[in-house]
Amino acid sequence: MTISTLGTVTILLLFLLTLATASMAALAAHRRSERLLEGATAGMHAIFGLAALASALLVYAFLAGDYSIQYVQHNGHPAMPIFYKVTAFWGSLDGSLLFWVLLLSLFSSLAIRANAKRHRELIPHAVMVLAIILAFFTALLVFLKNPFNPFLIADASIPAPQGKGMNPLLQNPYMICHPPSLYLGMVSLAVPYAFGMAAMITGNVDAQWQRSMRRWVLFSWLFLGTGLMLGGLWAYEELGWGGYWAWDPVENAGLFPWLTCTAFLHSVMVQERRGMLKVWNLVLVIASFWLTIFGTFLTRSGVVQSVHAFGEDPQLAWTFGIFMVFILIVSFGLLFWRLPLLRSRNELESVLSREFAFLLNNWLFLLAAFFIAGATIYPTLRDWTGILATDHEWLREITFSVGMFDEKDWMANMAAGRPAYDRITIGPSFYNKYMVPVGLALVFLTGVGPLVAWRKSSTESLVKQFLMPLIVGSVSAVVAFVAVDQIHDVSMGVAGTTCFGLCGFTMWTIIQEFYRGVSVRRRGRTQSVLDAFIGLITRARRRYGGYIVHLGMVLMFFGWAGNAYDIERKISISPGEKVSLGPYEIRHDGTVASEDWQKDMLSVKFTVLQRGEVVDELTPAKWWYYQSPDMPTTEVARHMTIGGDAYISIDDVDMTTGWTRANLYYNPLVNWVWLGFGIMIMGGIICIGTTRTEGA
Amino acid sequence: MALSLGSKIGIGAVVLGAIGYLVFSDPGEGVLEYVYAEKVVATPEAYQGRTIQVHGTVVEGTISKKKGTTGDYRFTIESAGERLAVHFTNIPPDTFQEGGEVVLTGRLSESGELFESDEMSAKCPSKYEEEDSVKQDGPAGISPSRT
Question: Which residue does chain B place closest to A238, by CA atoms?
Fold first, then answer.
């Protein structure tokens, strides 16, 4: 039997098994039958077994170079390093769906095992929900996107097929980690969703299940964040346009569930402490899961115009669309049905309370998530509306009155026999315009939230808590204002100044908390500051882990504030010439041509000078992979410092004269973004290790 | 004790204010019209004087680079059989090549015959290839980098 046949049979069995497991779990829940439940649980573990087998077969096909399988032929190449052969498994649409199924079945299996005792009553329903989600994705594999599809017999006349290989731009270590990290984050969100659904079906809607799910969400949050950041690093080092985030629909798809997860991680504390926001938390769990499906839909179906070229695939788009509507109806239907059980134990008492600060933070995160999701899909929605409005007068009137289309243009176009409207795209400056204020407000709340008391803060305590942070914040804003003016010779924008000020403010609130905690621990004990510090974190991991996450976030915003003062220069330069770039001078020192077994390389030597001293040598290059000689890749070089990066990418080189055309960038503070992110992840890991008995 | 009336009014005002701002503020440069090259060729006067995005395929054999300048490309893009000349003044992405699809941001010249652009996205290295290309170009073919 060929791998192709074996693989196809495996996913077919997998599909049948998901259906059987879902039915068995439903029956187990209905009859309260232990034996049926055991069967369903075993079915879930078996699903993972089969998914692992299918994945192993596909990986084997890549390693063995079985180019009779379309997917392998398209993404594999005999000369590819073994590492990339393995990762080519999830390198394209069909395989990535199989990878999705593999991860989801793994998480389902683990979650069921871990919660079997703790949440016995939820298990049958959770198994059912997870099996239905698995059935959906497996159905995609079986009916639309089988990665084991062989070439048709007619193709046998063509000489032995060769692999095409992975796009050279993707043969980069970041690209190995980035997609799986995002997938891990996205896929794992199905678990809290399934348990949330189970809680609503059974009516066990106390805080208990949410407390267990907090760690799952934290896990998803960590991996989503890591995936996003690795994608940013890859873009920064590989694409050569000097930036790392461009609000592309595909990038956004990973961002919005991350935002709702962040909101959930905060609001779940309010539920634990004060018995409030129960409905809200369920909404967030549903929204997070739904947004992962929505994101997958955006990136896989080609409905959105993106520079990431996805083939348009109406079949897949419809399938996802129906599934998304189904999730919404079922989830919110259940929520409405259970509303009476979800009443708050307490009410909001004051705007000067931590509950309210958290609520604001939640509104902002949710607003950001849906704003970004909305803006991402808007051009497509507008397009669909336009098609409908061409035939329906009433709809046309509505679109004119809400300003979606311009009546005069529409009529003029119709009269001239042209299409009635033009499509639009939404670019980075739109997102930045609206998201910068939201981001700044969030930095402010990061400082405020942890310092105001639950229920109600007294004026006295507010002064005590916020006096120093306010002073520090104001001083940082003024210092930044003056310093930037001197260094960069540009006047500081409002957003930049505010950002530096808010970073100072929030930073001080965090330092203050650590300082107080350490002082308390050292009181009456002989303990070094470091011991007290470590003791503090290990004793209240959740609280201080959270502060470390906040610290990382502040540092990231500090890095983003530097973004406002970046320099971009397009230059044309010959050997021996010098140009200035921010604090540096860049000298062209000739070109070098070389080659290895995979590619031809052409590098340009640039020397970086600061005040006449040589500080670094940079060799940006162009690489021509033998497998795709028409598409050279641009290899960026950068001089990294804590103050900023000098970043060079070359465009064109004349081999005989050494004349070079290049783009130079000076990106101030950019490395604080990566640093801050690392700290954030560290904080997240500290939080995830919390014992369940510990309070906030 | 619930929230005071004053607080409630305050919160309501801020929320309404924020929504109002979102609805009525000018979205700015971020929202661009996105047209295929053939439409620009057919009705250039409709697009003059503002920044737009134009989508087309780079015509084989038309890319010419001017040496000794800071980024200066001339090429022709095509869509639905109509051709539009482009003057591009920046470093193009790696995926820019003849026969490839590009989306250019810029303005139409006074004469309406040349598109002046300094921002390009060529089909980006995303991995989700068009399913059709698998069927069409068979095992030995090299797909025109739709990735």
Answer: B94
